[in-house]
Amino acid sequence: MIRFSRRAAALLLLTAAPMLASALADLSGTRTVTLHGNGGEKVVIGKVTFARNGDGYRFTYMADKQAFEERFLAMRPFGCLDGETVSLCHFPFASPQVITASDLTDLEYQFMFLQKPRASVSLNPDAGVYYEMKLVDGHIEGVLKEVDMGPIVAPEGKQARPIKREDLFAVDTSGKWLPRLTID
To answer: How far apart are CA 158 and CA 7, in angstroms?
Structure first.
């Protein structure tokens, strides 16, 4: 009898855990996207609206146009953020815009940047910035990784997700400008 009760309790916990996690992590609605510097600096770059979609969410990102400086680089317009010595130029990739608690890749693809020295007028696809994200206590946190954007700039065939996890490089973020992203 005790054995059955423990099994029943374990089964109940296993079936209830996803429902509890889902309720705690409800992202529905509009949230603010902020980049954070190591010294407490915050730059709001827009809003994301999430709507339930089966086990996940559909989302739309609306950039805060006032946060970005428009530049014409590499034969196209970019919205850039300027630090003291570096600029981050927004380089989103068209993706389906659907996420689940375990797969935030489409959202990560919306917040890719090319970094360049502020004084430079050219962009280097090797200098990509990718915020690898995870769901934490009902909001989303991202940490800066570096990536070669070559698979997006010069694709080999049509790929829905040309950047793979193994393409991301962990870096010491202590010396990086805006190394953290939050969606609250």
So the answer is: 48
Its sign, for the CA torsion 123, 146, 67, 104, is: positive
Contact 182, 139 (CB under 8 A): yes
Joined together, the tokens standing for residue 97 give 């815009």
How far, in Å, CA of 171 to CA of 167, rounded?
13
Show me where the domains of the chain are located. Answer: 26-183
The percent helix, strand, coil of the chain (3-state, each to 5) is: 25, 40, 35
Answering whether pTM is above 0.70, one says yes
The angle formed by the CA atoms of residues 79, 184 and 28, to the nearest 5 degrees, is: 105
What number of other Cβ atoms are within 10 A of residue 160's Cβ?
A: 11
- CA-nearest of 144, 153, 145 to 125 is 153
Q: Which residues, other chains included, contact 182 with Cβ-Cβ below 8 Å and sequence gap of 6+?
A: 33, 34, 36, 139, 140, 141, 142
Residue type, 100: T
The residue-averaged pLDDT of 141-147 equals: 96
Contact assessment for residue 179 and residue 143, using Cβ atoms and an 8 Å cutoff: yes
Give the pLDDT of residue 74: 66
Above pLDDT 90, what percent of the chain? Answer: 62
Cα three-residue angle 175-181-184, rounded to 5 degrees: 150
Q: How many whole angstroms separate alpha carbon 35 and alpha carbon 52?
A: 25
